[in-house]
Amino acid sequence: MTGVETRSVARDSLFLLADIRVEQNAETYRVRVRNLSDGGMMGEGHLRVQRGHRVSVELRNIGAVGGTVAWVQDNRFGVAFDEEIDSQKARRPLQGEEDPAAAVVKPSWAHRAPPPPHPTTLRKI
Q1: Is the pTM of this model over 0.85?
Q2: Is residue 18 in some structural domain?
Q3: Domain around 44
Q4: Are the C-beta atoms of residues 36 and 11 closer than 8 Å to each other?
């Protein structure tokens, strides 16, 4: 690793739990979600998966998301989702259907760089 970020998709580093089921197995496993993006996740847990396995991940505030195991290393693995999700929803507290005003939440910028300044506000030194 060079320390240079080469991915083109923003990821959120976080710690949340999710339930995952490998399609070849009826058993559900509880795993830690270490990184989450709109297109995939990095999970950690004691389950036996291999690259190419089809999985279903139950994410908080999102529901079941289908995907494919993209890589495995020790007890960590990557999942590429079949369809993009709104990864910010998983960071929000659990919400009930009875309070629609609670669904309005500003995006979290805790793990993202601020936008660059407008060129006209820069000064030359």
Answers
A1: no
A2: yes
A3: 12-93
A4: yes
Q: Closest Cα to residue 80, out of 62, 46, 54?
A: 54
| Alpha carbons within 13 A on the beta-carbon side of 21 | 11
Give the residue from 13, 38, 8 showing the smallest Cα distance to 110. 13
Give the DSSP H/E element, type plus range, for residue 63. strand 63-73
Strand partners, 33: 16, 43
Q: What is the CATH number of the domain that holds 53?
A: 2.40.10.220
Element (H, E) at 5: none
In angstroms, the CA 125 to CA 123 distance is 7
Q: What's the total number of domains in the chain? A: 1
Q: Are 28 and 41 in contact (CB under 8 A)?
A: no
Residue 4: exposed, middle, or buried by beta-carbon count in 10 A (0-12, 13-18, 19+)? Answer: exposed
Of 10 and 38, the structure prediction assigns the larger pLDDT to 38
First-to-last alpha carbon distance for the chain, in angstroms, is 35
Q: What is the reported pLDDT for 24?
A: 77
Strand 40-44 with 76-81, pairing: antiparallel
